[in-house]
Amino acid sequence: MAVIQYCHSFFENASMGIITQGIEKITCRWDSTLNVVKYNHNMRSEVYSMKKLFKVFSLMLVVIMAFPFSVMASENDQQRSDLIGAEEGDFEKLIAEIQRIKAAHPDYSEEMIMSFLEANHQDVERGIIDIWNALTDSEKKLCIRYPFDALKVNKAKNIATSQTEAKFGTNGLGNRSDAFRHGIWNAEMTVLIGKERAELFATAHEDKDVTGTESDGYPKTAHRDMDLHNNKVGREIGEKNKEASESEMADIIYQEIYSATTSFIWLHE
């Protein structure tokens, strides 16, 4: 009888333990499920918050990036690239190509050499043909006729743009810095190739379509007349100061630009 009671007590306790363990497991699983649900809910909230934050950040980034680019676009509109010289190494390659064509076809006229170079531009480096295309037809003819002078003209262009940036911080359009740039370009050309050749190249540079207006709102004809006048003033200064260094020439022209009796002209400040 005692054995039966013991067995009954054992199985009863065992059953209760199993039930208790089962309930605990169910409880743990339920708690885990709740935690997963809470975790998923929290994750969704965090993802939603991150999406909102990302949208706000993206909008701010667009605004921040758009502002400096708009400023740069405005500044670039006020700059002109037609008087910016090419890299000297690339320009030397262009002149070498012209010399090669002239040597291979000594009977070619300037127009024929121009046509040949343009028809066979696939065989020429892209950077070189870009330099060629940026020149006016009159400049191209002078490059063919006076190739070594053309190298010095390009050097003078680079001097002009670098000295203008040094004095004014930018290469402007139609303003005082524009007048300075054309003045020193012609002064340096006069020193390097003489006044007559300098006039040929400077005038050829202005031989372009002048219909319409420039980005500063002034007629292209007004810009052409301004440039031609300042080119002449620059050559006269160069003729009088042939021994001046690049920096000295820049100082001379800068002082003249700000003189109350200056001969230079510009369209606006």
Question: Helices and strands in order, then pairings?
Answer:
Layout lengths: L1 H76 L10 H17 L5 H10 L6 H9 L2 H9 L1 H22 L7 H18 L1 H11 L14 H21 L5 H12 L12
Helix pairs in contact: 2-4, 2-6, 3-5, 5-6, 5-8, 6-7, 6-10, 7-8, 7-9, 7-10, 8-9
Q: How do the SSEs run, as a string of H and E?
A: HHHHHHHHHH
Number of helices: 10
Quick one: how many beta strands? 0
So what's the overall shape?
globular
Largest sheet: none
The rounded Rg comes to: 39 Å
- Oligomer state equals single chain
Distance between the ends: 121 Å
Broad structural category: mainly alpha
Low-confidence runs = 1-20, 22-31, 33-41, 66-78
Q: What is the share of helical residues?
A: over 70%
Beta-strand content estimate = under 5%
The average pLDDT score comes to 80
Write up this protein.
It holds the Pfam family DUF6973. Keywords: Membrane, Transmembrane, Transmembrane helix. The chain crosses the membrane at residues 53-73. This is DUF6973 domain-containing protein. Residues 141-260 form the DUF6973 domain. This protein is globular. Helix 7 crosses helix 9. The chain is mainly alpha-helical and 269 residues long. It has helices spanning 2-77, 88-104, 110-119, 126-134, 137-145, 147-168, 176-193, 195-205, 220-240, 246-257. The protein has a domain at 78-257. The model is unreliable at 1-20, 22-31, 33-41 and 66-78 (pLDDT under 50).
Features:
mainly alpha, DUF6973 domain-containing protein, DUF6973, disordered N terminus, transmembrane, transmembrane helix
